[in-house]
Amino acid sequence: MDFGLLLIGFIILICILLDRYLNKLPIPSLIIFLGLGMIFGQNGPFHIVFNDYRFVSMICPLCLLFIMFSGGFSTNIKTAKPILSKTILLSTIGVLITAFVVCLSIHFLFKLSWVESLLIGALISSTDAGSIVSILKSKKLALKNHTDSLLEVESASNDPVSYTLMLIALVLLTNQNVSIPFLIIKQIGIGLLVGILIPKLAIFLLNKNFFESQQSRTIFLIGTMIVAFSLPNVLDGNGYLSVYLCGVILGNSNLPNKRYFVQFFDVVTHIGQVIIFFLLGLLVVPLELGKVLLIAFIITLVLTFLARPLACFSILAPYKTKLEEIILIAFAGMRGSSPIVYAITIVLSGADLTYNIYNLVFCVVLLSISIQGSLFPFVAKKLQMIDENADISKTFNDYQEDSDVNFIKIHLDKNHPWCNKYLKDIPVPNDLLIVSVIRKNETIIPKGNTLLLVGDLLVIAAKAFEDRKHLHIMELPINTNHYLAYATLKDARFPKNKLVILIKRGLDTIIPEGKTLIYPGDILVVIEALNDNDI
Prior knowledge:
The chain has 17 helices and ten strands. By secondary structure, it is α+β, with helices and mostly antiparallel strands. The strands form three sheets. The protein has a four-stranded antiparallel beta sheet with strand order 1-6-3-4, with no helix packed on it. The termini are far apart. Residues 398-402 have low confidence and may be disordered.
């Protein structure tokens, strides 16, 4: 055990130190981690004999748990909203189509039984979020038509369907006396129920200042994630579905000091990916891969050029999606760590199979990442799907949460006291910085001798403020029958410890004044002081 931990520690250190160089390679860095595991394995120069599937089955699902939760937590629902229906269909119906096309191909090409063919199809039917997100971020690829959001959300959310399909195939293969319809209902029903209730309770507690420090909140969130995964599993539900939903709900909620959670899960997810791919590479025996290499290569071709494209065309064509977009989405269907981790479950079940299922799935994943992962930037460029004017960071929830600096704007009208003054003569507090002056179509980087004129728009940087002990922010929707509808703000009878700080009106944000009229459909953002002296 100590030797194993020492080895993992060294590998983590090596990978982190090499990370800046790995991102510059034309191949996904995850392949390097697999390769390092194989080098340290029994056929490599270090000759470490490691075949403890049970140990790996305990470590890898834990790492996968963090990866799936983080995938949900970093999913920006607002950005993904335009493509949400397509994403849901791809991560459910798309997985089923992929699995069954692979199943049919394997059955007729290699004469395997229907159940064994279905098992292999189920294992490799989901795509990998870690691979695609890693490529998009490292290569700074922003894709047109929200395609990057679609790929991120789809790849992060399709594992639960693949896992359920794999369980069904395993039940059929081992002749268990289990009702398949009841199994599906329990898997989905319990997974959805726990995945919604647990994060709702966590949000309530986090926003009630139940915890004294950020460390306590982070530990609480880890506990929440583990419960969201393990409770459905104990109840025969789908823990992967539950923990992903838990991540989505928490990641798109207003949490105290949320940027720290984002940074923490980014780091832990990266470490988890390193550990998983290294252990999976260490577990495999390279000299035995030759027995399944041909069938794995053929399955990869079927998966890449038949099953995945057929699923994408079937689902996206009715949306009148452009051909180049469908081709890119189909090509981006890379396999990752999940299929190999699930294959360990099959190995431990003792099911009698024609091929070594672990080696077979390992080869398919390795070929998929190598071919599709390496060529994806090239294909995206050839299809003219790269958006040069967009920032890929905005696709993920960490864009607005990784900095504690906010930007505000001030418009100088003719009555503003700063008009016709030099910047050096304005008493700006030390905590504020005027970062730009927008004057008509010109952007000016200000200096002390910059003269401010009527009509200038000032962009000011300031430290973000967040104090959940004394202040609480809430939203107040206004409907037609609301007593504030068509009233001015000065006539609204708000308690003295509440203040309307802005009004959301459609796509517009209004900074309110006393004469501002409130309309039905408006959303008032109200700040409440938890004691009367705070406002």
